[in-house]
Amino acid sequence: MNIERIIVFLPCHSLGDFPTWLEDDEAENVLATWTAAWHPQLIAAAGRSPEWASADFLPHDLMRAVGIVPTSVEERFASHIDASALEGSYWVRDIGDRESIVADALHGIFDAHISPETAAAPLVADFYALGLAWLLCDLLARRMRTEMDLQSTDFDETVVRAARSAVNGSVEDARRELKECFHTLEATRSQYYAVDMFLLDTLLLAESTLG
Known about the structure:
four-stranded parallel β-sheet, 7 helices
């Protein structure tokens, strides 16, 4: 199946009202669904970065799209759709964990059972992290009463180049493109949240593990 879009249907009307009050299981499922869409094989197949839509409003054009619906909004989503709206696209629904979501989406695209870790295995986690970073940066920007401005950058094109390099086995090229993506997010964040951030890696040792 030739696809042109990957769309995740989130339980909000805009990212400004993204639900931060979900229970642990629901929150985990929503984040797993969103980050699954950033698997390099999915991005390389679509030729563009994943996008999101409200579970209450379907986009007008869903042809050649992969739609991914979190289990936590399945009932809500089903009440707003009819069979004709789903034609010409592939849907991943009623699946909870990230690896199964990816596997089902890949099966729909390639009409074959493909392990999510078969290609680009060393980099898959980095793409998931990039998807999460994108979401967190966007949510932070909205909390700061502004928007994340990536339109003036080549972020989306770089994501696609990274995905295609990863799928083709060009690990070093993919790492370089991913690094540029993270730097772009960091540079954009500094425009609306100009605060230095540091990551501390703390190792705790118990007497039973010493030596």
